[in-house]
Write a structure and sequence with these properties.
The protein contains 5 helices and 6 strands. The radius of gyration is 13 Å and the shape is globular. By secondary structure, it is α/β, with parallel strands linked by helices. A 6-stranded mixed beta sheet has the order 2-5-1-6-3-4.
Length: 129
């Protein structure tokens, strides 16, 4: 058994299979999940696990070269906006409807238990070398 890092076997395996340029949608409990990508649903109850906890764990495991979030996050969820601004390179903001369209190309969806609006981000994987 792994002693550190992400212990969820479904999430750990899905992350190991990602390559350069693949996208991962980290979303709240209310984001529509597109058909097609692998989904790892971590939601246990409202707010558990939080968007911040899941994002923090993923950023420990992934190289991220870019990210996209909804413009609406700035006004509706300033805490999540500050988290994204502080931790993500090359953050691009688009209208929420556009983010939903872009999420269809994600290779992996990680659903959190977050229950605050617009706590969603599309991460673009980089390489570690």
């Amino acid at each position: 058994m792994k002693k550190a890092g992400i212990l969820n076997r479904h999430l750990s395996g899905a992350l190991a299979a990602l390559g350069h340029g693949d996208e991962v949608l980290v979303c709240d409990a209310g984001m529509p999940i597109p058909d097609g990508p692998r989904v790892v649903d971590l939601a246990f109850r409202a707010g558990v696990p939080s968007f911040a906890e899941v994002l923090d764990g993923l950023l420990d495991e992934l190289v991220v070269e870019g990210a996209t979030a909804a413009t609406e996050i700035r006004g509706a969820n300033p805490e999540a906006a500050a988290l994204l601004d502080a931790g993500l390179p090359a953050l691009t903001l688009v209208p929420h409807e556009r983010l939903k369209e872009l999420s269809a190309r994600a290779r992996l969806v990680v659903r959190t238990g977050e229950a605050r609006p617009y706590a969603n981000v599309l991460l673009r994987c980089g390489v570690f070398f």
